[in-house]
Amino acid sequence: MPRLGPKDRLVIATHNPGKLREIAELIAPFGVEAVSAGELGLPEPEETGSDFVENAVLKARAAAEAAGLPALADDSGLEVAALEGAPGIYSARWAGPGRDFRIAMERVERELTGKGDRRAAFVCVLCLYWPGGEMATFEGRCTGDLVWPPRGDQGFGYDPIFRPEGYGVTFGEMAPAEKHRIDHRSRAFAELVPAVFGDPDG
Ligand code: ITT
């Protein structure tokens, strides 16, 4: 698998500003020149996959082929135990066409009515895809439980209702650096680093 070095350009293949900010923060120490799908005017591919891996691959492939550059895509979501893993790959779609996560969080809470089990996990699959067709995927998970009402205005998406295991606060109440220590995206990224960047000091 080719490596990425400080002079290389990498497309961050997401149209979600919250993800873009977090991925840019994770990549910053490695010095690659990150350019977003939005900046390049790339279209948003339809997510026709049946799991996180398939969707991450199709988004990364579409961006890599359109831009002629390596591309990093993220497919992620919230899996709620008592809802058999929903919303899962449909996490963004539960927020409706206006991407209003108040609506998505209210739907989760409504569907949990009468169920005692409030366990949930965030899942993230990252795909790094090269224009020649080489690719690799990396997965990270973060378990926790759901609170109601939503708390905090940090982060994005479902962060205000997700309380990671071992913490009294939600992701919505955590500073970005604190979330990055334990969240699903950072964990997937930690798997990617040795495969894609090698030893940053070596
Ligand atoms: P792209 O496909 O353009 O990357 P998207 O928002 O459509 O953007 P997904 O299909 O992967 O991306 O949807 C994942 C949704 O899961 C996302 O919109 C968030 O609502 C939610 N999600 C993922 N990671 C999250 C996090 O760290 N905190 C809160 N919500 C998160």
Q: How many strands, which pairing sense, and closed or not: the largest β-sheet?
A: 6 strands, mixed
The CATH first-level class comes to: Alpha Beta
Predict the CATH topology: Maf protein
Query: What is the spatial order of strands in the main beta sheet?
Result: 2-1-3-4-5-6
Keywords, separated by commas or semicolons:
alpha/beta; six-stranded mixed β-sheet; single chain; 202 residues; Maf protein; binds inosine 5'-triphosphate; 29% helix
Task: Write up what this structure looks like.
The chain is of the alpha/beta class. The chain has one domain (9-196): Maf protein (Alpha-Beta Complex), CATH 3.90.950.10. It has helices spanning 17-27, 52-67, 101-111, 176-182, 184-196; strands at residues 9-12, 33-36, 71-80, 119-129, 135-146, 162-164. It starts with 8 loop residues before the first strand and ends in a 6-residue tail after the last helix. The model has no long low-confidence stretch (mean pLDDT 96). It binds inosine 5'-triphosphate. Inosine 5'-triphosphate (ITT) binds next to strand 3.
